[in-house]
Amino acid sequence: MAQNPPNLRPDISNPRLERDLSTVRPTAQPTIGMVSLGCPKALVDSERILTRLRAEGYGISPDYAGADAVIVNTCGFLDSAKAESLEAIGEALAENGRVIVTGCLGAEPDYITGAHPKVLAVTGPHQYEQVLDAVHDAVPPDPDPFVDLLPARGVSLTPRHYSYLKISEGCNHKCKFCIIPDMRGRLQSRPARAVLREAEKLVEAGVKELLVISQDTSAYGTDWKDRDAKAPILDLARELGTLGAWVRLHYVYPYPHVRELIPLMADPASGVLPYLDIPFQHAHPDTLKRMARPAASARTLDEIAAWRRDCPDITLRSTFIVGYPGETEAEFQTLLDWLDEAQLDRVGCFQYENVAGARSNALPDHVAPELKQERWDRFMEKAQQISEAKLAGKVGTRVQAIVDTVEDDGATCRTHADAPEIDGHLFIDAGFESLKPGDLVTVEIDEAGEYDLWGQLC
Q1: Tell me, what does this protein do in biology (predicted)?
Q2: Which domains does the chain have, with CATH numbers?
């Protein structure tokens, strides 16, 4: 399970985060710590909770010792994620003693209190008001109008130069391995004007990259009964692209109207990066049917070819599941063959595991753990070979990149092809001293590895 960001948790606090949060930690006012686990959507929830608390006069503590109470925003998507969430709750209880639990695992309060009966309160995902009520009960606010000031972009848990922008909540799909609709409900799209207003404020505050997220980004707005556009994500992407920041689209379900996004991505002036994060999950039609996913992998290859024809620079990222119940060796080999033909740029892979409440648990012919591991190893070897060959082809080219960090030995950057925390990096180890996070630079690539690039400033 990913932790976002890795240095947020109080048990692995760092000087930079403590320095940043010191500006929103008034002396003698109640303080709250936050442990944020799970996906970027949960991170956005954490930011909203902390922003609301900060507006009420609470300070934010980057360590357990300085907090009057700790909020643990949990993940409950997989059993391994649940176990890590319980571990984080236990650690917060041991280090601080006053713990409020929220997030996806909060949809199962008995599961949490059964393991940790001393937690102060449990609330479910995106239940902001209930979290605030729990904090008020545990640590009453002490507002001070002279110091209760919020930064322009609210409280951010990401670096200043990029931010996640959540455009909807919930999902209307019924994938058998997923319980997100049970935890977060059906699709609920935010009004476009609210999304754009938030994006404008972020850019005004210095954000250079907007990472658009939801459970199903391409379905944005399709839950509006009175909508004018068939696919509102097209207009939203177009409007976001006018704000002057990079716009990166995540979790784009491969509906037919996605092809209408490609001309935007092909136009450097649009602001929409040529990057699509599409969760294909598998390639064999029988496996996809058992997943309750669209079983049209052949047509998907045709779509990929069309996307690349219309936008040759497009980067395609996807995630897959191996060892799904009933997956045969032939089905898995089909996946490897499909990957060979698709030549995706960025690939992630998970071994299937049961999740309480998921319909896939009841499927027959579960794959043995050792076989799942063996298939995962083979899949990742194939993906690594593809990545290494693709990156080698970039040597000698010039690319635009955004600077993430600058340290004594070099600058760590990302290209259009790299999303933070999940993709590769571009490293600059000479002439970087004047750079700072958020700078946009042009780099000539002179070396490539399996997942990362090295280059020189132009």
Answers
A1: Catalyzes the methylthiolation of an aspartic acid residue of ribosomal protein uS12.
A2: 10-138 (3.40.50.12160), 162-392 (3.80.30.20), 398-457 (2.40.50.140)
